[in-house]
Each structure stands twice: as structure tokens, then as C-alpha cells.
Amino acid sequence: MNMVFRWFGEGNDSVTLSQIRQIPGVKGLVWALHDIPAGDIWPLERIQECRRIADKYHLHLKVVESVNIHESIKLGSPDRDVYIANYIQTIKNLSTIGVKVICYNFMPVFDWIRTDLFGTLPDKSTALFYEKAKVENMDPIELVNRIATNPEYTMPGWEPERLEALKELFEAYLTVTTEDLMANLQYFLERVIPVCEEYDVKMAIHPDDPPWEMFGLPRIVTTKERLLEITSLVDSHYNGITLCSGALGVRKDNNIVEMIYELKDRIHFAHIRNVKLFNNGDFIETSHYTADGSLPIDKIVKAYHEIGYRGYVRPDHGRHIWDEVCRPGYGLYDRALGVMYLSGLWDAYQLSERVGETDVTNKHKLKG
Ligand code: DNO
Ligand code: MN
């Protein structure tokens, strides 16, 4: 398993690189220049500086999450070409330090959405929580106040500049249909993917979280059918996906195991996490352990093993446990437990493939 771990950068994360380096099996960071506004070019010097920092800890930087897409690209506005050109320059700059996968999303206005960053689980740990009834009656501005201004860190996807023009953005999206959004994604991919092929950097779209329309805004990365459609917009290996089990798995009609088998060649990055679904439509994130949530994490890892998955994997969000003070969803402890659970499952599947061999080895040992 190519295990990687998300890190938000020096001064922007409670977790340190020396801690990450001590998690067994973690070889690389999932990183980003979080202070660069969507649409701007990521400067080469800043990228190289990250390289130097990570080098000290022998961690690679092959996976970026995310290079965010400017709203003009999603809206299909006349100025989108400027932002696409900038995106292309960023891809080229990132390739110089060996970046291989760029995770991005195509959600209008908002990134992931929850109603409470510290929902309580039965064991008294806390985790990101989504209360359906609350969202249905909520003004998006209230949501911004809950998520964007709550913790001491800027939440990924809730950067202030993204939210400044909220009212105008909502108006701009009034006439954008799901078909328009899909066409705008295609326009973007048609320009970017040839560059990705040339520079050997794979694009990996992240599903919408949650995967349904919210506040009247269209959302297109929601189901297996949509993912298949997206991967065929530009038929290239470089037009791939980030298969996020937790984001997609909150829809009961999404079968993650089936998606792994059908989308296999195009999965370049796997986010694996569990989530507990309630009958009223609410959900809360849980530990990665299969028995703790509603998703078959054991079968999901088995499916990756069976397709011979060689892409990158990260534990996704974690709970807040053992009194850790951290970014919501991104503490050290529960994600490190997640790494060990996922790697343990993987090793067990690996071993079960070689049962015969193991027996022989044991016999030799006994004889010897
Ligand atoms: C939140 C993350 C998202 C994700 C982006 C990918 O913790 O799952 O912000 O990184 O949607 O582009
Ligand atoms: Mn994810």
C-alpha cells in the first residue's frame, strides 16, 4: 500500500513531520499551498521550499490535495481561460519536484459540508457530524459561520477569499444546470489533460461531500454513473479520480466495492474512512474500524487488494480522541490508528494469497 498522510504545512497543523514519520508505513505527505487563492499560480520557489522541508524527514510529496479550481472555470465564465492557463502552469511547476497526482474537486461555492465539527460519539470522542434537518433549514451564511469561523485554523475548502463573494456567487450559479457544470468540467479537462500526459501528473477528482445537491447548487461527482461519465469526458488514464469512501458512502445507493472494481484503472488516490449513517439521513464520521460504522472498510480494502491497486492511499478524516487539540477531522491519533488498520487488513489479504507458501515455510522450519 502506498500510504500517505495529509499535512497542512508548518504553522498550519498541530501534527509535526517527525510524528508523521513515525507512523509505520507512511512514506509521503498529501500537501498543498493552502494560502494561495484558487486561480493563482503556485510559485516554483514555494514548491521547492516544501520539497526541502519534506526531504529532511524523508517524506515524498507526490500527492497534492488540492489545487482548487477557480469559480470562473466551474461557472464557464468568459475569463476562465486565464485561470486554466494558470492551472496548467501550476501543474508544470509541481511536476518539477516529482508530483504525480493532483486531487481536486468541482463543487460550486462550497467544498465539504457538515453541521457540527464536534459531534459526540457513544465513546465520548468527537467527529464531524451532518444533521440533515438542520441543513435543510439553514441559510448558507449560517453554515459559513459554523464552519469557516469556528476553529483556529482555516478549514480546507473554506478559505476566506472563496467566501467573500458568496451572494454574487449564488446569483451566478442560478442559471447553471448539472449539464452545464459537466460541460464546464469537460472544457477544463480537455485543456489540462494533454499537459498532464506530457508532464506525467494525474488528475484525480474528489467526490462531492455529501454527494447530493445543496442549497440549490448543482453537484455532479455523486454516483458511480457520474464518475464513469467524468472519466470518459476525456478518455485518458490521466483523467482519474480520488475514490473517497466516506464522501460517496453516505448515499445508500452507492456501493463503494462495486465502484472500485468498475473504476479501477482510473483510481489514482484512495481516501478510506468510515461513517455511521442514521435512518433520518444524519451521519457522523467514525473510526476506520469496520464495526464502528456503516461502510465495509474490510471489503473495500479487499477490493483494492484484488484489483492490484498501486495508487496512493490515505486514511481520511479521523475522530478527535485522547484529548487531542487539532484541526477538526485531522488529528494525529485517530488517523494513525486508521493507517494501522488499513495496513493490517492489506497485509492479511496479502498473506491469504500465499497460504500455500507459508505452510511450506513452516514445515521447513519445523524440520530444520
Ligand atoms: C476535507 C476534504 C476536502 C477535500 C477536497 C478535495 O477534509 O475531504 O476538502 O480535500 O474536497 O478537493
Ligand atoms: Mn475524502
Fold and architecture overview:
The structure is a single chain. With about 375 residues, the protein is of the alpha/beta class. It has a single domain, classed as TIM Barrel, CATH 3.20.20.150. About 40% of the residues lie in helices and about 15% in strands. It contains 15 helices and 12 strands. The strands form 2 sheets. Strands 1-2-3-4-7-8-9-12 form an 8-stranded parallel β-barrel, surrounded by 5 helices. Helix 4 packs parallel to helix 9, helix 12 packs parallel to helix 13 and helix 13 packs across helix 14 (about 335-350). It starts with a strand and ends with a helix. The model has no long low-confidence stretch (mean pLDDT about 95).
SSE map:
Layout lengths: L1 E5 L10 H5 L6 E4 L12 H13 L3 E6 L5 H5 L4 H16 L5 E4 L11 E5 L5 E5 L1 H5 L3 H8 L12 H5 L1 H8 L4 H22 L2 E4 L18 H10 L5 E6 H5 L6 H8 L3 E6 L2 E3 L5 E3 L11 H10 L5 E4 L17 H20 L2 H13 L1
Parallel strand pairs: 1-2, 1-12, 2-3, 3-4, 4-7, 7-8, 8-9, 9-12
Antiparallel strand pairs: 5-6, 6-11, 10-11
Helix pairs in contact: 4-9, 12-13, 13-14
This protein binds D-mannose (DNO) and manganese (II) ion.
